[in-house]
Amino acid sequence: METTSKTNFIREIIDADIAAGKFGGRVHTRFPPEPNGYLHIGHATSICLNSGIARDYGGKFNLRFDDTNPSKEEQEYVDSIIEDVKWLGGDFGDRLFYASDYFQQMYDWAVELIKKGKAYVCDLSPEEVRRTRGAPAEPGSESPWRGRSPEENLGLFERMRKGEFPDGARTLRAKIDMAHPNLNMRDPVMYRILHAEHHRQGRAWCIYPMYDWAHGLEDSIEGITHSICTLEFEDHRPLYDWFLDQLGIYHPRQIEFARRTLSNVVTSKRKLLQLVKERHVNGWDDPRMPTVSGIRRRGYTASAIRAFCEEVGITKVPGISDIWVLENAIRNELNLSAPRAMAALRPLKVVLVNYPQDKTEEMEAVNNPEAPEAGKRKVPFCRELYIERDDFMEVPSKKFFRMSPGQEVRLRYAYIVKCEKAVKDAAGNITEVHCSYDPATRGGDAPDGRKIKGTIHWVSARHSFPARVRLYDALFTERDPEDVEEGRDFKESLNPASLEELTAYCEPFLRDAPPGSRFQFERLGYFFSDPKDSAPGAPVFNRTATLRDTWGKLEKKGAGA
Ligand code: ATP
Ligand code: MG
Q1: Which is the closest atom of ligand 1 to the Cα of 270?
Q2: Residues whose CB is less than 8 angstroms from the CB of residue 75 and which lie 6 or more positions away in sequence, other chains included
């Protein structure tokens, strides 16, 4: 089911363009990632924005790899990006493009600019180019090679392409204005020499276009109408315009919006790569990572991510969204859709001393109280059970109404039981708890109407099975881990307790949970059977989210630090 998104300033601009008949009423957007890492939640915002606009305006959406820099790009990244964009619902149809396929066209256009006297081959080193650029309030100085004739430039540029010069020996620069108030306009480099293997072009090229030269051309070639990008490109727009105007080619409209990041994670690709390489996480798709693949493996649905993007919206003001806003999106969805199950994460054995040794009963449990059509199931019950260790206290604190000696508690869907005593080993550790059950309370209700304050979940010791379960906490304790004092490492605020692995005892039907299924374990949170690590009959569960927001603690810690 497709929905229409709420409006934002970009949609208002598009509405105005359509009303004015600009682009003949066409709407064509794109998402242009550089394949040098996995996509993260910030990219998801951009995908939802661009593909959502194309969908709602009956337009088109392209996926284009901005693969102009050979040194950091890999096929693995290309594959993961395609998978993530599709999964998020970005419908690019057959419009999957690679900027590298335009290299010849870009080269021809560069030749055209050289012929027009608008570009020149410069022999300054990269360092000298930087030094002669000037500062915002101070003009740069002109390159001594700026006056080369178009003929000389054409010859040199051709030789650059043929591979006659080593890396960094020469560049092709636009001839604009070394005193321009916008530094991007001070004879920017268009091509550099780089003898490197390209993931698609192999060794066909040894000169590579710079991002600022390439990007506007790519949008122009594809007939993009609204070229939506993040704020840092605002100052580059005059340069893109200049290139397109000099060439006299089709001109998209660029609109900038603010990046959005998430609290308690980092979203810079360089830092994410560092976490992977240094093994602080188990790969790009570790469920603690803010990557689309990590969030997916955590158990999020694409619709929850879209709901999150919709919720945080699009603005001109950069911001950090609290991670609980993302968690709430998945809770809201799974509360309605996830079947319920019972499991004991930290099991404590309970023996019902007056329950027959070999008897088994089938208790009736509701699959989803939010969805009556999900029906009911039978849960086996017997003399020995596991409950959650936290649900027992030998010496109860004041507001503790769960299991403690002398008290009655309700076992959900089963019986009211009274705790007799805790059994301990020689070291004084509690090994099991003895209770007696009240046979008159089958289903959990007392016929005499006596009040039972606590209800706890359980599994049958004989019928349940052990499963690996992974619980997650914030990857970083700081709200904005990238905001660190100079000389300090962002990894200092990595949360040492971000992953906890347990062996839980689970209700029998979970044994056959297909990889990639979602459940609510009652009172414990939403869980997802890991698609990679689960095996038939041996699911591994990742906790997607707790039932309630547990971020209060962290926030206080972050604020006080
Ligand atoms: P990073 O800074 O993580 O390396 P990037 O911007 O260099 O990201 P690209 O592959 O160039 O990565 O990004 C593709 C598109 O995603 C760009 O159009 C960019 O504007 C957009 N984008 C990247 N990060 C965010 C973000 N945090 N919020 C919104 N859009 C983003
Ligand atoms: Mg970028």
Answers
A1: 4
A2: 199
Q: Is 45's C-beta closer than 6 angstroms to any atom of ligand 1?
A: yes
377 forms bridges with which residues in the sheet?
365
CATH topology of domain 262-339+466-557: Ribosomal Protein L25; Chain P (2.40.240)
Based on the number of CB atoms within 10 Å of its own CB, is 34 exposed (0-12), middle (13-18) or buried (19 or more)? Answer: middle
Domain 9-257 fold: Rossmann fold (3.40.50)
Q: Which residues are identified as catalytic?
A: 34, 259, 269
Q: What is the pLDDT of residues 154-205, one digit of tens each?
A: 999 999 999 999 999 999 999 999 999 999 999 999 999 999 999 999 999 9
- Ligand 1 near 215 CB (within 6 A): no
Please give the distance, rounded to the nearest whole angstrom, from the Cα atom of residue 42 to the centre of ligand 1: 7
- Do the domains 9-257 and 262-339+466-557 sit in the same CATH topology, yes or no? no
Please provide the distance, in angstroms rounded to a whole number, between the alpha carbons at the two ends of the chain.
45
Architecture of the domain made up of 343-457:
Beta Barrel (2.40)
In whole angstroms, what is the distance from residue 203 CA to residue 14 CA?
41
Give me the residue spans of the domains in the chain: 9-257, 262-339+466-557, 343-457
Measure 320 CA to ligand 1 centroid, in angstroms. 15
pLDDT per residue as tens digits for the range 414-456: 999 999 999 999 999 999 999 999 999 999 999 999 999 999 9
- The model's confidence at residue 374, banded by pLDDT at 50, 70 and 90, is very high
230 burial type by CB count under 10 A (0-12 exposed, 13-18 middle, 19+ buried): middle
The count of other CB atoms within 10 Å of the CB of residue 153 is 23
User: How many whole angstroms separate alpha carbon 525 and alpha carbon 520?
Assistant: 6
Residues 63/95, Cβ–Cβ less than 8 Å: yes
DSSP 230: E
Residue of 43, 62, 69 with the most ligand 1 atoms within 8 Å of its CB, for mutation? 43
Q: Which of 230, 295, 321 to mutate to test the pocket of ligand 1 (most atoms within 8 A of CB)?
A: 230
pTM (two decimals): 0.93
Supply 367's token pair.
């699959």
